[in-house]
Structure to design on (435 residues):
């Protein structure tokens, strides 16, 4: 005996199919193959055994190949015929009176064949919706779900850029995951394939045993429309668990901008230390005089104007010296001048001698600003314990939600501040949330 069941898809992406329909699970008898998306949405009638109460629908090929859904149903019982009494023949009457009326036979209801009850079978093939922009090198993004069915985490947009390639580092935990990179909203640039460990059947086949971490190279097919989408497999039916996964992307470094050629430098006689008009100009400073050289000994035509950078030699070594008014000789006239030079070689206007520089304005002594310190409340990641407080740190050292590290490999998450007290030492990790 067999029963007819109508399998109807409640949700199906526009580019999904064809589908395969089986009894009970992925190992059950195949009752239909090559079912198109339009047939599945309209309702595909299949014949299954009388004892079957579950059908299994899988995507046969395409990007979503291996994804599946199943649904249970209750068979409609066959009506039992009601016994109908058969009328007996009338007894003869000896009196020649009017004959007894002939009994009218009672109509017998004929049981009809049971109508199959349509059983909608959801085939969830969600269209990912990008939610945020990830810039190459932003760090690790973590995802988790308590759903025990197959699904997809929300896609993450990768910011547009000129880089054309990179690497993705991925990690899986309790259940298998598949990591996919797309460009221009439709092109699949990379897929990791299913990764992880599973001793039960799923989109990966009858079982799976691969590395749970890895780094792969990929190439973007477009500079825009980039996104990363992670799939999570269904849980082990005999021991369901949550799912979690993480990934990070590093893009190829851009081609460095060529360093411009160093300008030609020309020299000017200058005193090695600040002085007066009587101080001897006993060394040289060098600068990129646009007028070039006087033609004798590599001297510049002019003293460097205000705002210019000067150097210690013709190779462009930066000037380091004492700030103040230095004696400088004008190269083309040999006039004595005084020019203010900072300790890093930025010059001011020069003054012809005789000239008396103004006395420097004393630098006011800054008033010390007291440092406000606080201790931070934390939750320890390995057991979600809230009973950990840090020692005092300057206010603003850490922020709520920031991940910090105590002893090696022991992480905490900042939850707030409190009055400074004694406690554990922690260091910043630059990450948020527990790993």
């Amino acid at each position: 005996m067999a029963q007819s069941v109508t399998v109807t898809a409640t949700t199906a992406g526009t580019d999904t199919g064809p589908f395969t329909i089986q009894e009970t699970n992925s190992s059950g008898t195949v009752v239909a193959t090559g079912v198109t998306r339009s047939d599945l949405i309209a309702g595909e009638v299949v014949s299954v055994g009388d004892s079957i109460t579950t059908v299994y629908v899988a995507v046969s090929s395409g990007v979503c190949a291996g994804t599946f859904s199943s649904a249970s149903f209750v068979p409609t019982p066959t009506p039992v015929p009601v016994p109908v009494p058969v009328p007996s023949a009338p007894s003869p009457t000896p009196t020649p009176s009017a004959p007894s009326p002939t009994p009218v036979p009672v109509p017998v209801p004929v049981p009809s064949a049971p109508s199959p009850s349509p059983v909608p079978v959801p085939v969830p093939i969600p269209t990912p919706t990008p939610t945020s922009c990830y810039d190459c090198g932003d760090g690790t993004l973590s995802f988790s779900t308590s759903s025990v069915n197959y699904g997809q985490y929300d896609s993450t947009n990768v910011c547009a850029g000129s880089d054309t390639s990179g690497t993705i580092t991925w990690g899986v935990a309790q259940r298998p995951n598949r990591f996919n990179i797309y460009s221009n909203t439709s092109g699949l640039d990379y897929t990791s394939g299913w990764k992880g460990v599973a001793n039960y059947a799923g989109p990966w086949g009858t079982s799976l045993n691969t590395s749970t971490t890895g780094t792969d190279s990929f190439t973007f097919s477009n500079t825009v429309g980039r996104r990363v989408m992670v799939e999570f497999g269904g849980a082990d039916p005999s021991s369901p668990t949550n799912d979690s996964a993480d990934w990070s992307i590093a893009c190829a470094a851009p081609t460095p901008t060529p360093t411009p050629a160093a300008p030609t430098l020309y020299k000017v006689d200058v005193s090695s230390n600040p002085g007066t008009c009587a101080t001897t100009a006993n060394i040289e400073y060098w600068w990129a005089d646009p007028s070039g050289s006087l033609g004798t000994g590599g001297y510049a035509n002019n003293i460097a104007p205000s705002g210019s950078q000067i150097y210690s030699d013709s190779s462009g070594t930066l000037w380091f010296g004492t700030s103040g008014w230095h004696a400088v000789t004008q190269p083309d006239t040999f006039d004595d001048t005084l020019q203010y030079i900072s300790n890093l070689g930025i010059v001011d206007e020069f003054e012809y001698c005789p000239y008396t520089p103004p006395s420097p304005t004393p630098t006011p002594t800054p008033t010390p600003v007291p440092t406000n310190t606080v201790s931070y409340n934390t939750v320890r990641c390995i057991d979600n314990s809230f009973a950990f407080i840090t020692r005092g740190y300057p206010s603003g050292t850490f922020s709520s939600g920031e991940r910090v590290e105590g002893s090696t490999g022991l992480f905490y998450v900042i939850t707030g501040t409190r009055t400074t007290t004694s406690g554990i030492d922690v260091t910043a990790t630059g990450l948020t949330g527990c790993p």
Observations:
- The radius of gyration is 43 Å.
